[in-house]
Amino acid sequence: MKLSRIVSNQNGVSRKRANALIATGRVSVNGKVCRNPQHDVSEFCGVTADGDVIQQARPSLYLMLNKPVGYLSATFDDTHPTVLELFPPDLKHDLHIGGRLDRASTGLLILTNDGNWSRRLTEPEIKIPKVYLVTTEQPIAEETHRRFSEGIWFEYEQLTTSPAQIEVLQEREARVTIYEGRYHQVKRMFHAVGNRVTSLHRERMGEIRLNEELSPGQYRTLTAAEIASV
Ligand code: URA
Hints:
- By secondary structure, this protein is an alpha+beta fold.
- Helix content is 22%, strand content 28%.
- It has two domains: 3-55, Structural Genomics Hypothetical 15.5 Kd Protein In mrcA-pckA Intergenic Region, Chain A (Roll), CATH 3.10.290; 62-228, 2-Layer Sandwich (Pseudouridine synthase), CATH 3.30.2350.10.
- It is built from seven helices and 15 strands.
- The structure holds uracil.
- Uracil binds at residues 101-102, 105, 184-187, 200.
């Protein structure tokens, strides 16, 4: 949000008055005077006017969870436990999920309170690779390579998925890389080639790789390099 908007909204003054306060050096962003009313200010920045706090600085949170089976990627549910229940109460109110996993799926789940950052992680147009270890009910047919790389038609969304890669590891096990995160995407892709996914584990999103030493249900903060990679 523009600095002038924050100052006028939070201080209850007109945009003109906010611009004047800023131009005369009475407004600071993260402790530094800022005289540019058009300066972009995120929700994480502290803003003061004449020393009074207008917006409290908020710590940004970027976490990876090794999602256990059986937990919903949701903030609240009446029936099933949610992944948010795996975090302490003071953290969980602020967090949202950057790229959901189905209840039965496991592995890398990213949670953050930074909406702009998580949008970049999940937007189909940005094409961040998401890598899954998949086991299937039937042996993986030869034609799966070609069908996945051509893209699979999703009737409901009226679209063809981006070309995906598959590396077959065993008769019924493969590593699959997709570049979007459509609803049940991997399961639906296998369904389209007459197979069924029996387990799905996300290993990586872009440069962010799950630490396999994190036991299911454990989480850690992302490193500065991981955050910057998105
Ligand atoms: N594709 C699926 O089908 N399920 C997931 O949880 C993630 C990707």
